[in-house]
Amino acid sequence: MILDKNKFQVIVVGGGLAGLISSICLQRSGVNTLLVEKKEYPFHRVCGEYISNEVKPFLEKMNLFPQHLKPSELNRFILSDIKGNIAEVDLPLGGFGISRFQLDDFLYQKALEAGVEVKTKSEVSDISFFEDEFNVSLKNGEQLNSEFVINAYGKRSKLDKAFDRDFIKKKSPFLGVKYHVKVDFPKDVIGLYNFQGGYCGVSHVEDDTVNICYLSRRENLKQYGYIAEMEKAILFQNPILKDIFENSDMLFERPEVINEISFEQKASVENHMLMAGDTAGLITPLCGNGMAMAIHSGFLASEAIIDFYKGKLKNRSEVEVQYSEIWLKHFSKRLWVGRKTQNLFGHQFRSGLSVGLVKIFPSLAKNLIKQTHGEVF
Ligand SMILES: Cc1cc2nc3c(=O)[nH]c(=O)nc-3n(C[C@H](O)[C@H](O)[C@H](O)COP(=O)(O)OP(=O)(O)OC[C@H]3O[C@@H](n4cnc5c(N)ncnc54)[C@H](O)[C@@H]3O)c2cc1C
């Protein structure tokens, strides 16, 4: 039992899916956990909000599936090339659609219910490891200590600079944009529409709301200066996207935008800290399972630490080895396939070729989708 109010068994940095899931699992197993989140719930994030069904049984078993929010059920996949030629396949496993605004807030409430101590509107500015203990500094000057740290602060943070991580030294050419809209769009479809230098996902979330989320090369924005101008000049060359955008009632005053999205390799353990979700590696969004990976890796990180407190693992080094090995087993191949597949998108010739291949060999497409997804757990 830890009595110092600034000392925890585990500090989890970042309250997205990886951080929320790991802190709930830890606290429910009796491990005293603090979750630190920079923002205040609920809030929107740039994300396609399609979650692969591989995590549904786990969420249901843990009483963390938000059935009452009525997520959409998505089981058909439509792919278009830049000119709007389409191919369609059934999704082997399917998924559900729910806004991060609702889902993360629901899990935050579950974390509080479980007894996790949560500091929102609090940013971690540095973490050091000394004499088998972590010292976690917050931006407001507060100093906290813990036996373990799980970093789940997402795809990019000032912390990556503080830790001198390799990927942060390279400039990344991608930006992400998201809208919620009302538009006539099939309820069970996830559409992926190519445009020059990017691709755009369209699918339902809850409440008859449709998510439009795209990844674009930054040169597109540089060339046109404003998001709206870029969309008209580039995305609208795909007639399907033009039609969807022009018939949408926008629910946000302005889009959610993020820059510098990197798909470079990252380590799953750094300086004794376990990295989960995007902090350990971001899969290209076209694979549509970054959220499932965040949930799964958050769970696996918590399992390694729980095993230590149960006496199944003898020391810190065994925790790190268990987590890094299981992380590699579940995620490294998918990340690699995702990076390779992304090369087929955002160009007329290659996107046209992929639409043609999906039309002629739908089983090939299903197999590729399987390669980027994990086993149900
Ligand atoms: C354009 C785009 C579309 C996508 N579409 C999909 C999709 O349809 N389906 C899918 O499965 N995946 C999709 N993804 C991927 C998915 O969004 C991520 O994989 C997922 O959100 C990762 O969750 P996470 O918990 O690791 O990180 P996040 O959800 O990013 O959470 C990280 C949290 O850490 C907090 N934080 C950051 N720094 C600090 C700090 N210093 N101190 C405290 N808190 C901090 C942040 O505020 C944030 O709340 C998409 C990604 C992009 C870029």
Which secondary structure elements does this structure contain, and how are they paired or packed?
Layout (H helix, E strand, L loop, with lengths): L6 E7 L3 H12 L4 E4 L13 E3 L3 H6 L10 E9 L5 E12 L2 H15 L2 E3 L4 E7 L2 E6 L4 E9 L6 H5 L11 E9 L6 E7 L2 E7 L5 E8 H7 L2 H7 L5 H8 L2 E2 L5 E6 L7 E2 L2 E3 L14 H20 L6 H27 L5 H13 L1 H10 L6
Helix pairs in contact: 1-3, 1-8, 5-6, 8-9, 10-11
The structure holds flavin-adenine dinucleotide.
Alpha-carbon distance between the termini? 32 Å
CATH class assignment: Alpha Beta
Overall number of strands: 17
Q: What is the H/E order?
A: EHEEHEEHEEEEHEEEEHHHEEEEHHHH
Question: What count of helical segments does DSSP give?
Answer: 11
Mean of all residue-level pLDDT scores: 94
* Rounded radius of gyration (Å): 21 Å
**Name given to the CATH homologous superfamily:** FAD/NAD(P)-binding domain
Main sheet makeup: 9 strands, mixed
Q: The CATH topology is what?
A: FAD/NAD(P)-binding domain
Q: Give the domain tally.
A: 1
In CATH terms, what is the architecture? 3-Layer(bba) Sandwich
Query: Based on CA inertia axes, which overall geometry fits?
Result: globular
Cofactors and ligands present?
A: flavin-adenine dinucleotide
> Level of helix content?
25-40%
